[in-house]
Amino acid sequence: MSGSIELAQDADPADFADPADPAAFRGRRQPALFLPLFVFAYFGVALAGVSAPAVSIPLRLSELDPAHKTQTLSLTVALGGVLIVLVTAPLGRFSDVSTSRAGIRRPFILGGSLVGASGMLVLALAPNVAFVIAGWGVAQAGFAATSMALNALLADQIPTRIRARVAATFGLSTGIAPVIGSSLVGALPGNPLYWFGIPAAIALVASIGVVLVLRDIVRTEPVPVDWRSLLRSYWINPLRHKDFAWAWTCRLLVTISLVSVVTYLLYFLTDRLGIASDDAASKQGTVLGVFFAFSVVTTLVFGWISDRTGKRKTIVWCSALFTAVGLLISLFAHDLTTFAVGIALAGMGQGAFVSVDVAMMTELLPDSADAGTGLAVIALSYQLPNLLVPVLATLLLAIGDAGPNYVALFGAAVIASTLGALAVLPIKSVP
User: Fold this and answer.
1) How much is the average pLDDT of 60-76?
2) What is the DSSP letter of 126?
3) How far is CA 206 from CA 46, 162, 175, in A?
């Protein structure tokens, strides 16, 4: 970062070494409530952002356009993915250079949640598919701003020595979000206002909580922003920073594998395993609960092991490969029990993966990258799948003439996770 930076008004200057040095702010003391509210905010945004495309939107589309539900779901998720890719990196740049007296992250956390909640309201009231697509686009743009700022705080405020463990709690938050989302939607009355409104309200309250306690960085001198700098916010040169590029590719491929399964999970349960539509949301919650339960142990254990040993790469590639094994078992499942076994194994792999992968990527960021911009580039690795998966899934599901081809879709997910494991092997600068 460049330009003059000072503490937010509620911060204690004694907590910071040199207010002229942005790196001095990173990992400094925050109020005792900061970390739990930080994790809760991450969970709240994940709950809204995951429960909608995984549960609420599929249910809504089943009501509005049952004959074309897979196609319209693909279109909705894809267009939302386009929007989130377009806005995240510029928002990260604007956040880095913001001169707001509220700080460089606070306005984006709170403002993004307000916009996201507005989009969820549009989804709840949507009379047709067009309004579903529009509402999801607004929600995606808003929650993208919040997620960007929260991820930037990981680099801004969390020291390296505990970063994998904090990232592990992020992984737990993200893992439990679809479980709670599915169970919540399944338990709520059959009204879209509840399906979309309750998760949106939780995200908004959680964002307000972390905004109230955060000792944010305040920039006092403006930094020029033009279209060239905004375009550069999408880019970290993969030839100059090869290790970062390989880690980014690994994250992209592994996320593609999980998004492919989660996005179409509800329809897989009804169309392939024969579960009644009325029970699908609750069964989905059960399956995702199994995923989360098995991921918890590996998340905590391998986050601790990684911080203690400094090992990042080994854990990442092994966990990505283990995820592929779990998905391979799920691919051949013809009953809910076998499917749940495969998902449990995939959960174990993902628990270890998410606890270490984010920490590794933040450590591989170029020194010249501002936190918001750098984390926005990282965010592209798990946002692009929201664009790519629906396009690929539409083609894969259409193979053959016996209805949606879930074998082709899950087979592609297995391949993607395997390639993700291989992609991390060339990394040299972390063990």
Assistant:
1) 85
2) -
3) 11, 23, 17
Question: Tokens standing for 2?
Answer: 């460049």
Predicted TM-score (pTM) of the model is 0.67
Residue 78, Cβ density class (10 Å: 0-12 exposed, 13-18 middle, ≥19 buried): buried
Neighbours of 187 (CB within 10 A): 11
Burial (Cβ within 10 Å: 0-12, 13-18, ≥19) of residue 47: buried
> pLDDT tens for residues 344-368?
999 899 888 877 887 788 788 776 5
Q: Report yes or no: 298 and 348 within 8 Å, Cβ to Cβ.
A: yes
Given a contact cutoff of 8 angstroms between Cβ atoms, the answer to whether 129 and 135 are in contact is no
Residue 6: strand, helix, or coil: strand
Q: Which residues of 89-103 are buried (b: 16+ CB within 10 A; e: fewer)?
A: bbbbbbbbbbeeebb
Closest CA to 3 of 19, 27, 26: 19
What is the C-alpha to C-alpha distance for residues 89 and 375, in angstroms, rounded to an integer? 8
How would you classify residue 6: left for phi > 0, otherwise alpha for psi between -120 and 50, otherwise beta?
beta
> Does 426 have pLDDT greater than 60?
yes
pLDDT in tens, 212-244: 999 888 887 777 777 776 766 677 888 888 998
* DSSP bridge pairs for 6: 218
Q: Comparing 341 with 297, which gets the higher pLDDT? A: 341
What is the per-residue pLDDT across 369-420, written as a single tens digit (0 to 9) for each? 555 566 667 777 877 887 788 888 889 988 977 778 988 998 999 999 999 9
What is the Cα–Cα distance from 354 to 312, expressed in whole angstroms? 11
* Helix, strand or coil, per DSSP, at residue 104: coil
Q: How far apart are CA 374 and CA 93, in angstroms?
A: 9
**Residue indicated by tokens 């600068």:** 429
Q: Which two tokens stand for residue 216?
A: 């944010």
Q: What share of the chain is helix, strand, coil (3-state, %, to 5)?
A: 75, 0, 20
Q: Rounded to 10 degrees, what is the CA torsion of 404, 410, 412, 417?
A: 160
Strand locations in 192-300, DSSP E? 217-219
